[in-house]
């Protein structure tokens, strides 16, 4: 079962990306996920000021500078992991450096269901 | 099985005796409680038609179990054919051999309770979900108890069940370190189910009360170091010891203590002592059990220790304040220290806006006012209490109190 772990970061979290300890924590977390054999895909993301958001309304493209929601905690990276159940996914989410300073959202990947 | 039983009677018996276990078993095998409920309903409908034509099978419950499991497998296979992404769905059935016989079927009701109490489920919906998914109470009845519209309650319940299946919440009793947050919700649901069984003996839901006690016993043997589990079991046993004594409604103080079940009372006392021996802070269920234990001590001493009961209520409103606990405390203070003290304590329920629709509030106010000689207040309160009572026996009792004390 695949879950997406969406990691957010606070402003100070993004600011501390120059700190070698910051990357050390993320590298060892990533390594642990890979060693467990559950890694599907994942990446850290450039800070929110690099984001561009597009919306199409009535055929008109509206392209805007910035992320889609202006909140205190912003998307900083994500992992897709393949684990047995929600408790396993939550266990991995809790190990993420984000869990200590911001938050991690855990969502199951959609398995399309047709009603019969 | 009696050969004279009709298809309807057999199905009703299976529904009362085995439905809860079959449901929990199938839900845990496939990790989907909503699908299990649908499949079981379909199996009952199929039985109704098949058995009428070809006779009732030797093992009706096993037939229902097999039909429901096949129904789930069909549903999942169909889903796979329709959609290549779902190729792993039928693999979600546990790899162990499926049970074909009810007696050999592992009991998963406890696991289902803990799934409903998972931190990933909205806290407000946990107890209703347990009452519906495990104890099979009607949505309308649950909505009533939680002061919510049946439609809104139904939506919240189906959303929660969809989450259990889609997010794949595992069916397991949690490890000790994850237990604390989930145990209390489970205990509260077991208690609520017991109370629902108590309130409605006429409708055949007495089975619900026995099921609640059974689950509390299993939980106590599984988690011997959890004092609140023993507290709950002691509370249920004290209540059950008295239930068998009272066909019609007789208020606690007027009950003949010789009719109370000695065995259950003794078991309750043992559980309570074991809980106290764990020497943790007293939780709400232990306090409620201790209050019942104090009431039961009348069987040995001939007198109810009201001061002790008032003190226990004092602790209870600290640990878990509720309208019910405040009313109980007022009644105990009234009996221990005089009706004026009781009336003063009853004033503290003012923080609860719904107190005027709470039957026990009016019954307590009526009794205390009458004892204090406040005839008009008592008269009004008795009428309110009678209007809010569903049970005809309770209404009759209040009527006789009204005529005896207020005229």
Describe this protein's structure.
Chain A is an alpha+beta fold. Chain A has four helices and six strands, in the order E-H-H-E-E-E-E-H-H-E. In chain A, a hairpin with a 2-residue loop joins strand 3 and strand 4 (60-65). Chain A is globular. The mean pLDDT of chain A is 91. Chain B is an all-alpha fold and 407 residues long. Chain B has 20 helices and no strands. In chain B, helix 11 (227-243) runs antiparallel to helix 12 and helix 15 runs antiparallel to helix 16 (323-337). The model of chain B has no long low-confidence stretch (mean pLDDT 87). The interface between A and B is medium-sized, with 14 and 16 residues.
Distance between the termini of chain A: 23 Å
Beta-strand percentage of chain A?
Answer: 25-35%
- Low-pLDDT runs of 5+ residues of chain B are none
Biggest sheet descriptor of chain A = 4 strands, antiparallel
The sequence of SSEs of chain A as H and E is: EHHEEEEHHE
Largest interface by Cβ-Cβ < 8 Å: A-B, 14 and 16 residues
Overall structural class of chain B, as computed from helix and strand content, comes to mainly alpha
Counted beta strands of chain B: 0
Outline of chain A: globular
Radius of gyration of chain B: 24 Å
Query: CA-to-CA gap between the ends of chain B?
Result: 56 Å
Task: Please report the number of helical segments of chain B.
Answer: 20
Mean pLDDT of chain A equals 91
Radius of gyration of chain A: 16 Å
Give a short synopsis of this structure.
The complex is a heterodimer of chains A (116) and B (407). Chain A has 116 residues and is of the alpha+beta class.
